[in-house]
## 1
Amino acid sequence: MVGLMRFFSAACIVVLGTLILPPLSMAQNPMLTAPSPSPMLSPAMPNPMLPDPMAPNPMMPGVTDPSSDVPLNPEFGNLPDTPGVEDTYFLCSACHSVQTFAQQSLTDERWDYLWDWMISDQGMPDYGEEARETILAYLKTHFSAER
Amino acid sequence: MESRGTDLEHRAADAVESNGAVAGTESPQEGRRTFLKGTGLAAMTAMMGMAIPFGRYMPEGYRPVGLAHAQEPDMVVMNDKDGLTLLNDRPINAETPAHLLDDAVTPASRLFVRNNGAVPFHALDMDASSWTLTVDGEVDTPLELSLDDLRNDFEVVTRNLVLECGGNGRAFFQPGASGNQWTTGAVGCPEWTGVRLRDVLNAAGVQPSAVYTGHFGNDPHLSGDPDRLPLSRGIPIAKALEEDALIAFGMNGSDIPAVHGFPLRLVVPGYPGSASQKWLTRIWVRDQVHDGPKMGGYSYRLPAYPVAPGTEVPEEDMVIMETMPVKSLITNPMTGAQVAADGFDIRGHAWADGEVAGMETSIDFGQTWQRAELDAPVNRYAWQHFRASIAVPLPGYYEVWARATDGEGRTQPVTTPGWNPRGYGNNMVHRIAVIAA
C-alpha cells in the first residue's frame, strides 16, 4: 500500500515538475492523481492510514505518509525531528498550534506564499531571511506535495 | 509596510533580559532555546507593547491573560462535543464523522467546529449582558439593537438550516490545498431560532447605493493584536435581502453554544460557512464589495478559469466563492460495517443551494445507479433525508456511493472536481465500505 502511494507520489512529482503554466505541453495524466488509498489494497498490507484495517474507509485520504522513519520529537509538538524543528516549533507556535501546518501537504510555491502572507496579513513579525529559509526548508521537507 | 525587524531585535533583547534569561550560564543549546523562546515571547511582548513578567516560567503554549484571550482554555468548549475529529486545537477546528451526523437535526454535540481565531471571553463565560448589534452604513437609519430588541421588535422564526464550511472536502485534493484538511464532516443542520436578516436590514432602510454587507464579530485574533480581526466577510446585498438568512440567537431550542457564536450569529444558508459570522456585533451595509479579513486574496475564492492541479493562480484571477455545490452524505451504516447479504438499508442527507431534486446510489463504483427515496426539506435550505434498500448480487466487499442532483440538473462528481489553490468546493460523492455477509 505504502509502496503504491509512493509510486503515485513519484509519478505526481514527475508530472508536476514539468508543469509551469497552463496550458500544458507535457502530457499530464489525471489518472495518476487518484487521491484515496483503495481499501481493496489494505487486507494484505496493513495501512496505518486506516484506523482499523477491518473497518475500511474509502474516504480516508492519503495526504501524508504515515510510515516515515523520521522520529518525532515530543518536546516540539511531535514534529519530525530534523534540523529546523526547533525554530519551526517555537516561532510558528507563537500564534497557532503545530497542527495548523502539520496537516498540510503543499507545493513549495504555496509555502513561500504563506510565509509572506502571514507577515503581510496576519501580523506575524518579520523574523528575517535566515529564519525564513530555515523554517521554509523544514516545512518543504516534511509537509510537501512535491516530495 | 514598515519592517519590524530591527525594532523587534531590540525588543527581543530587552524582553529576553527582563524575562530573566541568564546569558552565559547556559549551554549553547539551552541558550539558543532560551533565545528562541524569548523571541517567541518577544513577538508576543511586541504585540502587547509591554514585558511579560515571569515569562520564562510560562508553560509551553500558555497565553498570558493580558492578551485579548488566553487561548488554551478554548478547548473547554470541546467537552460538550461527542466523537468529533480534532484537526487543530489552536485555532479549534473539528469535524464530525459521517455516521455521527445521522440525526435529522444536528445536535450541538455533533456540530462541527470551525474557528479562525480564539473563542471570546464573553462566550466562554456565556455572558451576553449589554450585547449590541449595530447595523450601519448605506442605510436610512442606523440601528443599535439589544437582544431584547431583536426578540421583541421582529418576527421570530425557527428554521433548520445547513451550515457547511467552504473547505469541506479539501483533504482529497492532490496536491494538497492549504487550509484545514476537512474530509466530509464540516457540515451540519441544526435548528436555528432568530430573526430574518432581511427584516432587520429593511428596518434600517437599505439605500440604493448598497452593494454588499460586511459582518463583524468580536473573536480575538490569534496574534493577540486587539486591532486585528480573524474574519470579516459579507454577502451581496441581494442575497442578504432574501428571506432565508437569519440573525440567530437560538440553536436547537437553547442559547447558541459558546463555540458556535453565543449569543448572536448570522446563518446564511447556501453560502460558505464563513459568511455566517459568529459572535455578531455589527452589520455594515457597504457601497462596495466588502474587503474585511478573508474576503480577499485566496480566501474563499476560486480561480476565474480552470487550472491544473498545483497551479499557483495570480491573486487577481481569483473570484469570490458564493453558492455551495450540491452534496450528500451517507450517515448509516458507518463505513466498514458488516451488513446482510440478502439486503440492507442505507440513509443520509442531501443539500444544495436550492432544492435537491434527486438522489441515487451505486454499488458498482458508479457503473450503474439506482434511485433512492428522497424527502422534501422541512423548510428551504434544510437538508433532505434519503434512504435506499440495497441489494447485492453476492456476499462480499462493496462500496456504496451516493450522489445528489440539484434542481438545475447538476450532480456530484465521482472524483475531486476542479483543483484550486485553497481546496474549496469539493462536493465529490460520498463512499462507504460495507461487507455483505
## 2
Amino acid sequence: MANTVHRRAFCLLASAFCLAGAPAFETSALAQDSSIRLGIVAPMSGPNARYGAFSLRGAQLAAKDINAAGGIDGRKIQVFSADSQGTPVEGVSATRRLIDQDKVDFLIGDVSSSVTLAMQPVVEDAGVLLINAASSNPKITYAAGVGGFKWSFRNYPTDENRALIVAQYAAEKRGFTKFAVLSVDSDYGRSAIEFTKKYLPRFKGQILSEDYYKEGEVDFRSVLAKIRDSGAQAIIMYGLADTTPIVARQMTEVGLAGKVPLIGNGEFNTEKTIKSAPKALEGAVEAAAWLPGWDSPKSKGFVARFTAEYREAPNNHAYVHWETVNLLGKAVEAAKSTDRAKVRDALAKIKYDSAVGEVTFDDHNQAKLPMILLQIEDGKPVVKGAYSADIDYPR
Amino acid sequence: MLFQISEQIVNGIVTGAVYALVAVGMTMIFGVLRAINFAHGEYYMVGTFGAWVAIEYFDLPYPVAIVAGVIATAFVALVIGQFVMRRMVGAPAEAGVLATLGIALILQNSVILLFGGGYKFFEGGYIEPVTILGVSLAEQRLLIIAVAVLVFFGLELLVTYSRMGKAMRAVSQNVECCAVVGIDVRKVVVRTFVLGAALAGLSGVLTAPVNVSVYGGMGELITFKTLPIIIMGGLGNVRGTFFAAMILGIAESLVATYVGLQFRDTVGFATLMLVLMWRPHGLFSAQARY
Amino acid sequence: MSLNESSLPLPGRDLRLPFGLAVVVLACCAPLLLGNYALHAVIISLIFLLPAHGLNLLVGYTGLLSLAQAAFFGVGAYVSALMAVHWGTPFYVNLFGAGLVAGVLALPLGIPALRLRSTSFVMCTLGFVIIGQAVAKNWISLTRGDMGLSAIPKPYFALGPASFAVSGTVGFYYLVLAIAALATFVVWLIVTSPAGRNMVAIRENETLAESVGVPTWRYKLVVFMISATFAGFGGSVYAHYLTVVSPLTFQMSNSTLMLIIVLGGGPGTISGVVFGSLLFVGLSEALRIAPELRMVAYGFCLLALVFWFPKGFAPLITRFWTMLRGRS
C-alpha cells in the first residue's frame, strides 16, 4: 500500500519539478530577427479583467494592421502578453517574465496605477522602455523623466486633469454646488477624489458625503438612500464600468433617477449601461481620455476597424493601447532602429498626430493630452468638447 | 430620521435574506462534515451563471432560468460531493481548508475560462420598484425575502420530521455511532452538501436581477460575508444562522449609511470578534444544532 | 521527522555533510544557473518562506491553524516602508522594526483570539486580515490608502561612515538568501530546544501537556507572537523588493499561500517548509506558461495534495533521504 502511494507520489513530484524547471531552460530560443518585441502587461484576470481584455485587443489590432502594411521599415511587431491580475506583485512577476523570458525591448502597461508604480523600478534596472497607456495616478510621471526614471513614459492624462475638468464643467455649465461622492475604493477612485477636493473650493462646491465601494460591491441601496436624503445635486463617481449599471438601477429603485446625475468617469456612455437604467443616466457627465463618440476621422476609423474585427465596440482602454502601439511604431520609425535608447530619445522628441490631437512629451515624460467630456442627452452620449489642463509638478 | 432608520432596516433585511440563504447551506455542511467550506460562495456564482446561460443562450424566461440555475448548481455539487466531499468525512480541519480552497479556485477559474473574466449583464427578473409604507423596493427584493422565509420554514420541517433530517442531526452529533446503527454517513454528507449548495445557487439566481452583473469572481465576496455569520449563528445551527444573517444585514446597512460604505465589509468580522470575546461559542449555543 | 532533526546516529552512510554542502553550493551558485526571471521566482519564494516558518511553528508544532499571517506580513511591509520613506533608516533597522511591531501587535490580538477553539480561532485570525486591509485603506494620513506607498528605497546598509545599497536581482537574491538561512537556523534552534518539545506536546494533547506542567497558555501566546515576528520580517523584505506597498498586501490569498506552503511542504518539519515554499511559489510561476489554465491547475494541485499527500511532501523527503543513506 505504502509503496504504491509513494510511487505515484514520486511521479507527481517529478512532473511538478519538470514543470517548475521548464522556464529556466527555455531561454535559449531567442529570436535573431530584427522584429520589434513588444510586451503588454495588463490585468487578464481579477476585477479589472475587462480592461485588460480590451487593452490587449487594442494593442493586437494595431500590431496586426502595422504588420499587414509591411511593418515599420520592414520590421514586424511581435506582441507578448502577461497577466498582472491588477496587483503589484503579480505585475512585477509578469514584467520580469516578459523581460527575461520573452526578451522584449518595449513594454506597455499596466492599467492599475499601483502596478505601474511597481513596474517602473524594474524597467529602470533592465533598461527596457515602458510606455504606460492607461494609468492615471499623477505620481507615475512625477517620478519620471527629470523626476528620476529615465525609461518610463506615459501616454495618458492624469487623474488631476480629469478631476479639474469635471469639477469645472459641473460647476460652471450645470451650476451644481452640493456633491455626494461615491467612488471605487482603489488608487484611481481615491486619488480622483483627492484632486476633486483640491479644486472644488475654486468653484464654491462642497462635498456632503463621501463613500467608497470595493470592487465587486453590489448593494448600494443604503448609501444611495443617504445621498437622496442629504440633498446633494450630483454624485461624483469615479467608478468601475462594471458597477455603473448596478448603481444606476438602484438609483431608480430608491428614487434618485432623473433627479441627481452621475458625474465623473465609469463608462456611463456605453449603450448597454444606458439601457440598464436610462432614466438614472440621463444628464450624466463623463470625462475620459477618449470616447467612441469622438468625432475625428482617425477615431471613427478605429471604431469601425475594431468593431469589424471583434464584433464589439471598443472602449477607452482599447483605444489608448491601440494608439500607443502606433505611437511606438512612429518612434521606431523616427529612430530608424529598434535600439532601446535610440527609440527612447526619438519618443521624447516626437510630434505624433493622435485621434484626439497632437501628442508631445514634457520633461517628465508625460504626454500632453486633452480630456474629452460628454453628457448623456436623450439616452445618447453627446460630446461637449476636449479640455486640456496643465500639470503642476511638485517642486 | 426615524423613517430613514426604518428604511435602512428594510434594506438590511433584504441583504440579510440573501446571506441567510447562502449561510444556511454552509452551516449544515459544517454540521455533518466539521469542515469550513471556503468554496461555498462559488455555488452562489454557479447558480447565477446557470440562470444567465439559460437566459442568454436559450432565451428562457426568468422563472425557468431559476430552476435551470438551481439544477446546474445541484449537479456541480453532486459531482464535487461524490469525488471530494465524501472523502472528507473524518479528515482533519487542515485538509478541509486546502480541499475547499482548491475547489473554489477550480470552479471560479473554470467559469472564467468558459465565459471570460468580464462582467455579464443579467437580464430578467422583476426589477420594477414598488412602494410599501413609503419605502421604495424592487419587486425582486420582496421575492427574495419571501423565498428566504419559506426556505427556512421548510428546513425546520425537514430537519425535525423527515428521515433525512434526522440522519443529518445524527451525523452532526456523532459520526461513529451513526455507522454503528447503520446510517450511511457518506450518503448523508453528499445529500446535505448538494442541498446546501443548491440553496446557495438559488440565492444567487434570485439576487442576480438586482445585482445586474454576473462574473466569475462574485462568489468569493459572498464566502467572506457568510463565514462570520455561520460562526455567530453557532456552527451547524439553522435557526441561529437565520438570525445572525439578519443581524449582520441590518448592521451592514446602518454602517453603510452612518459611517461609510468603505467600512461595510469589515462589519461582519468586527462584529464576529466582538461577539466571540463575549461568547466564545457564538450567539446561539452550538448545543441546539439544527 | 525532518533531516534537520535526526540527530541520532543512524546506521548507514552519513550523508549529512556532503548533502548540506551541495545545498549550500547550489544556493550560492543559483544566479549562475538561473535566469533573472527564475531568480525572481526564487526570491519571492524565499520571502514567503519567512512567514511560512512562523506559521509552521504555529500550525506544525503547536497545532493552531491560523490565517493571520497575511495581517502581520502587511503590518511588517507597511512599517518597513514607512520607516524607509519617512526616516530613510538603513535596511536592517527597518527589518527589525517591522518584526518588532508585528510581534508586539500580536500580543493584544492573540490574548482574546487564543481563548477560542478550532474554527472560531481560524475565523478570528481571518478577521485580522480583513480588518487590517480596512485600516490600510482608510487610515489615509498614514498609509495613503489605496494609492499605496511607492518609491520605497533599495535596501541599504550603513556601517559607520560606509554605506552600500543592494541593487539588482542578484544582489537582492543573496540578501534574501542570507535572511532566509538565518531564519531557518533560528527556527531550528527553537524547535530543537526543550521549548520545541513542549510545543509538540501541546499539539498532541493540550490537556495532558497542561497536567505535566507545561504552561500551555503562555506557550501558545509566545509562539503566536514569534510567528507574527517572522511574518513581519517577510513583509519588510517584500516591501523593499517590490518597492510598493498597497492594501492588497493584506489579502486572504497571501495567508492561504503561506498555509499551502506549510501544509503542502509538511507541517512540523523545517526542510518540508523550505521545499514547500520553493515548490508552491515555483509552481504558481511555472503555470504562467498556460495563463488561462493557471489557477484551475493550481486548484487541482491542491486537491491532489489533500488526497495523495495528506502529510505534505515531508514524508517523501524523508524517504528519499533514507534511500540515499542506503538503509531501505
